[in-house]
From TrEMBL:
It comes from the Bacteria. One of its GO terms (cellular component) is cytosol. Gene3D superfamilies: Glycogen Phosphorylase B. This is ADP-heptose:LPS heptosyltransferase. It comes from Streptomyces paradoxus. Keywords: Glycosyltransferase, Transferase.
């Protein structure tokens, strides 16, 4: 590689859509210092990857060490990945992982594919698998940790980039939501421990509606039964009615979004919409709270499930989230929107950042 030629760089983030969105600032830094930037992610998070500014191509690999239902290890899938990576003629790779994950399985495959220089956060001894073994700062937010790694690898955000989450401009969705202001309630999550139970979410929709908010309930195709129950007679049900760019459009036009610690919360942050974050402490909020937008964290951070990474609530009644009262929800929305119906005693920002 000559000194004047910018590298062809691969960014790896093999986790969920939310994790890919959190990688956005690091991707933009890499893109600013590369002639070509590709993102390698899982098939489920590819739509989020295609929405990130700076990405020239999205490659997919269903890694057998990642995800809620990882696929079996096969020679065919590994061979296909190796052929794709080799054809990409990448000079460098940056592997983004969460604090509890190892970058070494994919680092081995990157080396075998001939990628010249690989960087990652890594606590384990990497041997010859990493050219830059970086150590993340304690309790660092995932978005900032990824950006720290990019900087350590020689990539800086371009001048004027504030480092917040960002996606390509979403489409207008007034034909889905109708005119007028609204609040989004997103009741679902891939990890059930990180969301309200359906009945609790339905009561929240009713309370928001009674307080004068127009409520729009969002969810994926597999969540139509959930969104219909939550919307009831109080809200507009858009369950299964949007793809990811359209969901971004719905969130972008909302005054605030009420959601658990899940991809749509990070998508809301990426389009600049304030978030009421229903945050179960199964993972630390300091690492996964909404990034770069006003937000309020609701939930019991000291619940018995704290730091367990549990997928299903181990405590009867799901008290860390279902114990959040309607008054707390209304106060949080009011703090972020200054909604006239909720002014008065519930206007303090509280845990907002």
């Amino acid at each position: 590689m000559t000194p004047t030629r910018l590298p062809r760089t691969l960014v790896v983030r093999l986790d969920s859509s939310g994790d890919v969105l959190l990688a956005g600032p690091a991707v933009r830094a890499v893109a600013a210092g590369s002639s070509y930037t590709a993102l390698l992610c899982g098939p489920q998070s590819a739509p989020a990857g295609r929405m990130l500014p700076g990405v020239d191509d999205v490659l997919t690999y269903d890694a057998p060490w990642v995800g809620l239902e990882p696929p079996p290890v096969t020679r065919a899938a590994t061979r296909q990945l190796m052929e794709t990576l080799t054809a990409g003629r990448f000079d460098r790779a940056i592997v983004l992982v969460s604090y509890h994950q190892s970058p070494l399985p994919i680092a081995l495959l990157l080396k075998l594919a001939g990628i010249g220089r690989t960087a990652a956060d890594c606590e384990d001894y990497p041997g010859a698998l990493l050219d830059l073994r970086h150590r993340r700062r304690p309790r660092r937010h995932e978005a900032l940790a990824a950006l720290d790694l990019a900087r350590a690898a020689g990539f800086e955000l371009p001048h004027g980039d504030d480092g917040r989450l960002r996606v390509l401009p979403p489409p207008r969705t007034t034909h889905l939501t109708g005119p007028g202001p609204y609040v989004v309630l997103h009741p679902g999550a891939a990890v059930p421990a990180r969301a309200w139970t359906p009945g609790r979410a339905a009561r929240a929709a009713a309370a928001l509606s009674a307080a004068g908010h127009r409520v729009v309930v969002t969810g994926g195709r597999a969540e139509r039964e959930l969104t219909a129950r939550v919307a009831g007679r109080h809200a507009l049900d858009l369950g299964g009615a949007t793809d990811l760019p359209q969901l971004a459009g719905v969130l972008a036009a909302a005054r605030a979004v009420v959601a658990g610690n899940t991809g749509p919360a990070h998508l809301a942050a990426a389009v600049g919409t304030p978030v009421v974050s229903l945050f179960a402490p199964v993972v630390p909020a300091e690492r996964w709270a909404p990034h770069g937008v006003p937000h309020v964290l609701l939930g019991d951070p000291h619940a018995a499930c704290a730091d367990t990474r549990a997928r299903h609530c181990p405590v009867p009644g799901h008290p860390c989230l279902d114990g959040i009262g309607d008054a707390e929800v209304l106060a949080a929305v009011a703090a972020l929107t200054d909604h006239p119906a909720d002014r008065g005693e519930h206007t303090e920002r509280g845990a907002a950042v």
